[in-house]
Every structure is written in C-alpha cells, then in structure tokens.
Amino acid sequence: MTSLVEQSKKSAAYQAVDDNLKPSYKIIGIGSGSTVVYVAERIGQLSNKSQFTCIPTGFQSKQLILSNGLKLGSIEEFPNIDITFDGADEIDSDLNVIKGGGACLMQEKLVASCSKKFIIVADFRKKSPTGQLGVNWRKGVPIEIIPASYTKILKELKEFGAVKAEVRSGGSAKAGPVITDNGMFIIDADFGAIPPAEVSKLHNKIKFLTGVVDVGLFVNMVEKTYIGEENGSVSTMG
Ligand code: 5RP
To answer: Which UniProt keywords apply (predicted)?
Structure first.
C-alpha cells in the first residue's frame, strides 16, 4: 500500500510536470532525491518524451533519466536549461529552500542556476510550519567542502553561531565521511530557525569561507513550489 507521504510526493511531482512542461521546451534539469523519482516517471510517460534532453544533478539523477527512457545530456553541452524540477528539505515563506539532504547540492545548484524556471516538488513535511528554515529540518544546513578544510570550517561555523556542526558520516563509526559525487565532504550545520530575511546573509558568509564548495541554502532561485498535502490536494506557492 502506498503511504500518505509517498502519495503526496507523487501528486506534487505529477502536477508540477503537467502544469509546467511546455511542448516548446527542449532541455530539462532533473534534481535528486525521492520526490524527483516521480518527476522522471511522469516525463517518461509522455508521448513526446524524445524531444527532451535531460540534465542530471548527480549519479542517482542520471540513473533516473536513463531508467525512464529519457535522453541524457550534460550541463557542459547544455548550459541553457528551460526548466528544472527538484526536491527540497525545507521551504520558507519567501521560497528560500534548504537542499543537500542527499549530498547533491553543488550539482543541483549548478543546474538550477542555469535554468530559466526552477520548480520545487515536495511532500507536506517540507513546508516550514513557522515560515522559517531550520524548524522541521533539524539536521542542519548541508555544506559541501574540500576534505582537508573540515577542521577549519567546523570552527568557523561555530563562530557564526551554529549550535551543532559535524561532518556527515555514512551512518556508522566505521563507514567514515560521506563522499559527494564531486569527491568532497558534507558538513551539516544547525543554526536553529533562520528568519527569511537572514537566509541570504548566512548563505553569503558561509560561501565566502575558504574550503567551501557550496552551501545548501538556495536563495531567490525558486519560481514555484508544489506541495503534496496530507488531504491529497496539491498546494502551490510562487
Ligand atoms: C538532495 C536534495 C533532495 O532534493 C532533498 O534532500 C529532498 O529529497 P526528497 O525528495 O527525498 O525528500 O537536495 O541533495
């Protein structure tokens, strides 16, 4: 039986594709995570799917494109993307989002920044109940870093007010750090609730630290969000 969360991911993804994928589009960005699975599935059902070239945001995304019979392209060949669909870990009232729960934030941001439209698809747990980031998503802001810089950056994040900051591990003491598709580490830094007006400032401070590759705060990038609600409906913002 499909769970409520799973059904809400599917409804949000299907509606986002149905509302936004115009026949004139050629290049589509495909994000990462468990909600975007349904975006690729929906695009794969279209009779005109062969007209689209899909740009991945990581290894999982590439597999999704191929397994749904879609044409795979690269960001190097196609830096002008018509539309990108991606998931989110939390969404605030200004449509700023936390991303990187799946450690793909760098390529996700690269593809989003090359896109004319950036659409977020998510289940009901991702909308912040207070309109601030860091409320439901308590794992912290994901930050991709160069491995050798982790001691320095952990110290600097604590000076910036992080109540907790740690290198993401593979789940057990033996597993060691998670390695991203770019060969980097991820730090998760918990700053508590971040008011929408402060997100950009925090992003810029972290991004400026030597050793940081990119930050999982996406500021002023999202055009529209599709949220699958608990009652089965899909709500939109933007
Ligand atoms: C991966 C991401 C994902 O898009 C984000 O974690 C949401 O994933 P899901 O759709 O599984 O909840 O940013 O780096």
So the answer is: Isomerase
Output the pTM of the full model: 0.96
Residues 56 and 5 in one domain: yes
Residues 66 and 32 in one domain: yes
Indicate which residue's Cα is closest to atom 5 of ligand 1: 88
Closest C-alpha among 85, 193, 80 to residue 132:
193
Catalytic one of 6, 76, 77, 108: 108
Cα of 203 from ligand 1 centre, angstroms: 19
Are 8 and 89 in the same domain? yes
What value of ipTM does the predicted structure carry?
Answer: 0.98
**pLDDT tens readout for residues 73-115:** 999 999 999 999 999 999 999 999 999 999 999 999 999 999 9
Structure tokens at 106: 């760098």
Asked whether residue 92 falls in the same domain as residue 176, the answer is: no
Distance in angstroms between the alpha carbons of the first and the last residue of the chain: 32
